[in-house]
Design a protein that fits this description.
Blueprint (H helix, E strand, L loop, with lengths): L3 E4 L4 E4 H5 L3 E2 L2 E2 L4 E6 L3 E6 L4 E5 L14 E6 L6 E6 L3 E6 L4 E5 L14 E6 L6 E6 L4 E5 L5
Antiparallel strand pairs: 1-2, 3-4, 5-6, 6-7, 7-8, 9-10, 10-11, 11-12, 13-14
């Protein structure tokens, strides 16, 4: 998959890395275009047209996915994810559906909501164990639901 973007109003193509460095085209900032947005209790995440996830807001539990637990007032790229087709934010955690049907979650793990057999928080995405062929993921306050192909929940 190409990581080219149309930036500003000129339609010029720039790589994602250039856009993240704050490139300006025709007097306008280079922008990533979102195809989905989701909000948790105090953080927000957007799925870009390229299949990458960006989050911002309160980050104490790692729910921004940046590899830290820092708050961020601007969007940060979630580490280690690409080819994402859906994203859903819970209270203090976030989950993403990969195009291959795998589910990844990060952030607060107090209630085992990250699905990796642990109650520890994670500031980077972890693979949810035992879910293949997922087609929908929905994060709640401290839990998640996954719908698989064929309608199994």
């Amino acid at each position: 998959m190409s990581r080219e973007l149309a930036c500003g109003t000129s339609g010029a193509g720039f790589t994602q890395e250039v856009c993240q460095q704050g490139a300006w085209v025709g007097g306008h900032p280079c922008r990533l275009f979102a195809k989905q947005i989701t909000a948790g209790r105090s953080h927000t995440c957007a799925l870009s047209e390229l299949g990458d996830v960006y989050c911002w807001g309160y980050g104490e539990y790692g729910q921004l996915g940046s590899g830290t637990t820092l708050d961020n007032s601007i969007s940060v790229l979630v580490q280690g994810l690409e080819d994402v087709v859906a994203v859903s934010a819970g209270s203090y955690h976030t989950c993403a559906l990969h195009e291959g049907g795998e589910v990844y979650c990060w952030g607060n793990g107090d209630y085992s909501q990250l699905g990796n057999g642990s109650t520890l928080d994670s500031s980077v995405p972890v693979l949810v164990q035992g879910f293949e062929n997922a087609v929908v993921v929905s994060a709640g306050g401290g839990h998640n639901c996954v719908l698989r192909e064929g309608g199994e929940i």
